[in-house]
Amino acid sequence: MTTTMRKEIAEQPAAIQATLDALLPRTGEITALAEGTRHVLFIARGTSDNAAVYGRYLIETRAGRLTALGAPSVATAYRRRLDLDGVLAVGLSQSGRTEEIVDTLRWARDCGARTIAITNGGESSPLAQAADLALCTLAGEERAVPATKTYTTQLVALAVLAIGLGADVDPGELRRVPEAVAALIEDPGDIGAVVDGLAGKAGLVVSGRGLVYSTALELALKLKEACYLHAIGLSYADLLHGPIAVVDADTPAILVAAGEGPVLAGTVALARRVRDAGASVYAIGGGEELAGAATAALRGPELPEWLAPLGLIVPGQLLTEALARRLGIDPDAPRGLRKVTQTG
């Protein structure tokens, strides 16, 4: 049986292409709205918060703007007013209907920020209506509870946002993403070997650094949601500061890396250290060097580091869906979860 999650994973190249076609021509609107702002504040929860981590690293490393991940509770629970003059606040919600995110974006505007919404909910969604500018993704309806195509199209919107903020990147490289994602869906690598290695485990660590840290967080979340694993998403810098002690023969690691960039060598060194400690290491991306240091490996995208997260999550999504089925879990409707989460 083909799950809805698996069907929606396969829809990602078309969803990414449609979102690119809609949003790339709008970078000028972003530039105009952001004129006079210095900082970027992301407002999100869950999968959208993981996407925001990508936006944070991309904008800081390529656009030279300080960014922060906002705490919605400051607005909705503590009801504190802050001086947000000079801030560009970006609210992310796949549905555009998460009340906490909508309320926090309105709060940011009332505190002096200029506001952008990133949502798959369309221009009529509450989040889009609350923003000065809405960047609406075109993933289409997503019926499986674990987000797949809505997440990757959020990353596209964040890449477009970074371009609008003056990122030192080649916008034309974004056009390579749909094909790169399609190639990974067609041949992600040895999914079966990784499923075999994880099927009997209660927990694992998922780690990456820099631009791909977002991928580690998102994959860990997916494995929690759909496979009920105790999955910890960590930067490998944080992992080395103590939590590496939890990695052993019963707790494997998944390491995520782009095929280039300043953190690749450290990821390879970590893979060797973990294997020397007697634990299994599963790689996603990182090229031949990381694959050679791993117990088994999944492919990464043929994309530059700044776009690698748009592809790296795809083998992780396929792994999550396959592992859930191996464990006898329906990945389309994990227990205790709904498509739109409201927080008090």
From TrEMBL:
The keyword Cell cycle is assigned to this record: no
Swiss-Prot/TrEMBL keywords: Aminotransferase, Repeat, Transferase
Superkingdom as given in the UniProt entry: Bacteria
InterPro entries found in the cross-reference section: GlmS/AgaS_SIS, GlmS/FrlB_SIS, SIS_dom, SIS_dom_sf
Keyword Membrane: no
Its EC number(s): 2.6.1.16
UniProt GO MF annotations: carbohydrate derivative binding; glutamine-fructose-6-phosphate transaminase (isomerizing) activity
Pfam family, one: SIS
PANTHER family: AMINOTRANSFERASE-RELATED, GLUCOSAMINE--FRUCTOSE-6-PHOSPHATE AMINOTRANSFERASE, ISOMERIZING
Protein name: Glutamine--fructose-6-phosphate transaminase (Isomerizing)
